[in-house]
DNA sequence: ATCTATTTGTACGTATGTATT
DNA sequence: AAATACATACGTACAAATAGA
């Protein structure tokens, strides 16, 4: 382990960090330099106390910082301790969601991105999915093949249809693209969908949405990239029109992240 | 403040949280429910200790968790304490960067997104920028109007030209789009650009890059959205070809976040 | 099933540091 | 300069969890 004077991964932050934060940064750069992998064990509390020459509480606060960032997990008991941990997607979403909590993202903002990114993903995935993955997509669509009876069911189906996109995102070869699409779907799920429930059930729109997804699965199975892209694009345009009409507002809350 | 039993913003995480984590979550949902804004003050340590009926260390660890997530800042001294804080962009980038630390993002992955997102932003900004903003962009380009003399200068210019995109990102009306473009530029800046320095200075490429940016500024000033989009698209295609040729690898390290 | 060893988790008292008035 | 109001850090004692004998 490097000396406690190792302050930061970069000199970009000239601020005086609190001691726990310094310790946390030191551990981070140690993890990088030692090329530690998820599952690798960090020194235990007592060792840390000795090596850094700091009190127990200070070390514990440092570990909490790393834990909050999703970089370590800690277990009690024999063989316990702190372990390097791969930041989970859920955590990353939550952390990024915190950033946007104070901004006021609109549905329009999100759809501006979905409109170009979702078709991109669809084209990528054409011909790349396993039978299992295609089946999972079909099973998801099955959750909303019947038109909704009431507003509540419509709400649930809307959430479920967003799961379709999360599923696709999880198959992405490009992890950045996959993460973003999953993040946006999560944000939309967390909307107070239809805060004012517009009464006119829109059968046409529901029909179009599910049809798009079914056609999309076919195109993906056949490996027809251009067609998958075009269908997704249409799907997004329809969804956008729907969402914007609802004037749905982003619900301001913090996401949960394990 | 809600009772300490308020565990999480959502019941999505069935895990047993540590007490500090519970306290942190309770405070978060309290901030949301009380609709607190950045700058608002949280109860001080002693009050927290009393309200949650927990020891000082536990409370402090909780505050550290929130601090690590960028949601609060703490000051010592009279009138000090913990304050709600808007998550900074730098912090959000760092936190998201941690997630990708364990994935192996390639330059190709990033460019797949830049290729569609940067032109989108360029089109948005056409006719929207103030004289100051346009001047700032021009000033940035001025940092690399002269061809690089050596590999080191080429590296610096490359970083500087990424700043051009960060600048554009900061002007974005769509905060999600702006954040992403800034994030990607940051990731690229952090690359070990040219780990193997290819010796053939490529004057043509350098020329094309700066010309694109100069033309782009003109299109933005004139409010010609389609043209701005087209130029940026070309710019991205050229940059992608360059980067991929360098076979640049992502440097695995943690970003700094204030 | 019980004990035991290991390691984190919680509690609390005290002293120090820091910024405001 | 001094008093005040806060967080910060330390050290110790004990509680809880978990794996293995």
Description:
Two copies of one chain form a homodimer. The first copy, chain A, is 60% helix and 3% strand. Chain A is built from ten helices and two strands; from the N terminus they run αααββααααααα. Chain A has helices at residues 19-33, 45-52, 56-68, 89-101, 107-125, 131-141, 151-170, 175-189, 203-222, 225-246, and strands spanning 72-75, 81-84. In chain A, a hairpin with a 5-residue loop joins strand 1 (72-75) and strand 2. In chain A, helix 1 (19-33) packs across helix 3, helix 5 (107-125) runs antiparallel to helix 10 and helix 9 (203-222) packs antiparallel against helix 10. The two termini of chain A are 28 Å apart. Chain A binds a DNA duplex (21 and 21 nucleotides) through helix 3.
Q: List how many beta strands of chain A DSSP finds.
A: 2
Average pLDDT value of chain A?
A: 84
Quaternary structure: homodimer
* Proportion of strand residues of chain A: under 5%
Order of SSEs of chain A: HHHEEHHHHHHH
Low-confidence stretches of chain A: 1-14, 194-199
The main sheet of chain A orders its strands as 1-2
Keywords (chains A, B): DNA-binding, Transcription, Transcription regulation
Domain HTH gntR-type (chains A, B): 17-87
Pfam families (chains A, B): FCD, GntR
Protein name (chains A, B): FadR/GntR family transcriptional regulator
């Amino acid at each position: 382990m490097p000396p406690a004077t190792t302050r930061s991964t970069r000199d970009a932050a000239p601020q005086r960090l609190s001691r726990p934060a310094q310790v946390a940064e030191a551990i981070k750069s140690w993890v990088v330099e030692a090329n530690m992998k998820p599952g690798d064990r960090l020194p235990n509390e007592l060792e840390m106390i000795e090596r850094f020459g700091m009190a127990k509480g200070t070390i514990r606060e440092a570990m909490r910082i790393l834990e909050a960032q999703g970089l370590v997990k800690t277990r009690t008991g024999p063989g316990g301790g702190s372990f390097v941990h791969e930041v989970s997607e859920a955590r990353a979403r939550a952390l990024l969601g915190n950033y946007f909590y104070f901004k006021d993202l609109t549905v329009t903002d999100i759809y501006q991105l979905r409109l170009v990114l979702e078709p991109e993903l669809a084209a990528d995935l054409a011909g790349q999915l396993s039978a299992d993955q295609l089946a999972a997509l079909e099973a998801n669509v099955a959750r909303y093949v019947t038109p909704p009876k009431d507003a509540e069911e419509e709400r649930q189906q809307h959430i479920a249809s967003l799961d379709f996109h999360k599923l696709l995102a999880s198959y992405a070869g490009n992890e950045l693209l996959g993460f973003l699409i999953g993040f946006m779907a999560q944000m939309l799920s967390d909307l107070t969908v239809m805060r004012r429930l517009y009464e006119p059930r829109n059968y046409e729109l529901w029909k179009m949405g599910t049809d798009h997804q079914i056609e999309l699965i076919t195109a993906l199975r056949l490996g027809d990239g251009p067609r998958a892209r075009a269908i997704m694009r249409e799907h997004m345009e329809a969804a956008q029109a729907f969402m914007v009409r609802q004037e749905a507002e982003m619900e301001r809350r913090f996401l949960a992240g394990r």
